[in-house]
Structures are given as structure tokens and as C-alpha cells.
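Quick start: what a row looks like.
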Amino acid sequence: MNIVIPDDYQNVVRGLSAFRKLDWHHVRVLGDVEKDPARIAASWGAETEAVVLIRERTRLTPELLDRLPNLKLISQTGKISNHLHLPDCTARGIAVAEGVGAPTSTAELTWALIMAAMRHLPQEIAGLKAGHWQRTLGRALRGRRLGIWSYGKIGRLVAGYGKAFGMDVWVWGREGSTGLARRDGIPTAPSREAFWSESDVVSVHLRLTPETRGIVTAADLGAMRTDAVFVNTSRAELVAEGALCAALQAGRPGCAAVDVFEDEPILGAAHPLLQLPNAICTPHLGYVEKDNYELYFGAAFDNVNAFSNGRPVNLANPEVLRR
């Protein structure tokens, strides 16, 4: 098959062991960042039969799909998000194979951001390189309260890290999520207001859906203490537009640590959060880790080979086969 793997920012896909699974296909790996559908289609080529997406980096709009007349398969690394609309693909006879999801790497980065924020590591590292010594006073995690919004696969791991560090962990979310937490012996906050106002650290682990878009409000953030930390390694759009920058400028919460942005990649430091001294920002590194990439791409390439061999698996739209 003629396969395109777009948006390989770091030029790492060819170096994966899993890449050998595509040896018998014609594969092009593209690193340039492009948003315009016409230019994307031109760079991929009309002969493209399959595309392997790196999470949701590429938005597959109807306009783009219409410019790819030979596209038969979209093989997704990780889970499908809001970067494509399944009915759009099905209507054009394009199968969409969903990949595996692995929570560990994102959970570990979440904990790294919490530690960095509480101990002021970015500021102290920068200060030491600038010739200074011990300019801030960090805080320990033991005995402090960790609030986790949504006790799913990632939230559960983060809760375990919190307990291992001696934190007082509680959760907030829908009944299904909080019920799982209670079965694991983790209490639920008595109210949404208490969750935000009484947590030393709040970490959100929700999927982005139409219902969760903007679910973290300005009022939620404004209820946090001036020494509290807000952490987001899920999706930027979970927070109401502009609310986090405004909250940080007002000093509630005192700090935020985020790994996600509304329109990625961020180049030229062109995001207001990057200008704030009380914001720790990383470039969506949660899932970008060697073992995770081998897992994600290995599964996506297996889906390509199964489809090429006439035995498609893991299709999110199996009804497309009837076409």
C-alpha cells in the first residue's frame, strides 16, 4: 500500500523497531507541519491509500478527505479524538482502525509536572544556570491534598502516585468515575466547590467530548488557593477559553503546569501561557515516550497489515466494509 505518516515533528518514527512492520509497503514519513487541507493533500499525494496518524496532530476535514480519492484506511495511533468525524470517513468508504491506549507515560509526566511545580524546579534550574543559588522555597507533597478529576486509567495511576507520596487523595467526576474510586478506598470530594477550594493540587484527566469542552470554568479556577497548583495533561479545551491565563494573572491558582494547548504545535512561543512566570509548560510530551511509541505505532502498523491482507481488525466503523 501507499502509506503516509504525517506530522513526525521529531523525525523519530523511522527509528522505531516497529517501523520494520511496514517494510513491504511504500511509506513516506513527513515532518513538516501543515494545516491547510489543499497543501496537506498535495504533500501526501492523490495516490495515498493509507495514512497512519500520530494521535490527533492531523485534522481530517471533509475538504481534505475529498482531495484523497484513493484513501482506503486511516490507522490511528492511540484512540480517536475530535480530529476526525467517523461518519465523514464512512460516507467516503474510508475504514478507520483504532489503536491501543497506554496510560503510564502520561501519568508519569503528570507527576513530573506536579513535582516541578511544587519544588519550583524550572525556576531553580534556570537560576542556577544564570549564576544564582537557592532563590525559592518549595513545598513537600506529603500531607497535602491531591484532587483528581476523573478516575480513569490515568487518574487511577496518578492517585496511586499521590498515595505513595503520602498525599491525601480525593476525586471528583461523574458517578461512574467516583464509584470506581470509592471501591479503591479513595474518597469523593463533598462538593465541586470543596474540590477546587480545598485541594493543594488539582489534576484533570477527562476525555475531550462536546460535554466536557470548557468544563473547567473561571469560577473553578478562581476558587483555588493562591498557593495551589492546577495541572492539565489531558486537553487544553477542557478549560474555558482564556480562563487559565486570567486565573494565573489574578493569582488563583498560584501556579499551573500544562502539557496541552488548543492549537498545536506551538512555535515561536506564540501562546500567552508561555509569557507567564507562574506557568510551567511542556510541548505535549505525555504520550511522547519511546516504549509508548513502540506500542502505539506497532499496533497501528499491525492494523495496516491486517487491512492490506484483507482481514481488517479494530475498525471503529466496521459498517464501511459493506460498501
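That is the whole record. The chain is about 30% helix and 15% strand. The chain has two domains: 2-101+289-322, 104-281.
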